[in-house]
């Protein structure tokens, strides 16, 4: 697969274009499903980019939408072909959050709120191993090892020499006090966090206990933004058995405003680093 072909992003862009064509035709998803003798859920999944789109699907939909420009049809067919290729993460087998990895791989910036743990992109190997094994006690050792390797591979987005991912992380103070693995593991993790927070494209803030109730009280979430104007921002909420992706402008705006409140309630960058440094020294005792 060409390195610049991201199947997740191709599916997403193709789905957006198919939705635009349907809306230009003035048809509902139900009407399209009836014409093609398929379920409405299939049309929805094709449009939201959560499943692969075959060239046959594209051909049939273009027929329903009466697309006469063959160049448009050919372009959409090529996008469908690209969307069925595999990203680097597919080499690790069935990854539950593969859609998210595809989005993260192509994102320009990422804002994260983590209430319980250090966010994955900033984890050390030892911390990641302890988190993954503790969170999946019934998984096989091989599966856990695979998840660790995927997590570490994802970190290439923030260590890249050119166009690294811009990362802004708000960590609840609880994540710094929760002893994951052991005290030495925590000391190494916090020292790594301090080092990474000094990179110009990475910002780390700590939301202190004293704030009390706050805008992120309902849990973890991430906001992904993309360089291409055709790609709308996405709010990602991780679940145990399924994940939630929000793309409607009003939803994204609501979570963005929540994030601004979290940033305002958090310690500033210098204060956050000082707290992390103090706790790292405590773990060394």
UniProtKB/TrEMBL annotation:
It comes from Streptomyces variegatus. This is XRE family transcriptional regulator. One of its GO terms (molecular function) is DNA binding. It comes from the Bacteria. InterPro entries: Cro/C1-type_HTH, DUF5753, Lambda_DNA-bd_dom_sf. Residues 18-72 form the HTH cro/C1-type domain. SUPFAM superfamilies: lambda repressor-like DNA-binding domains.
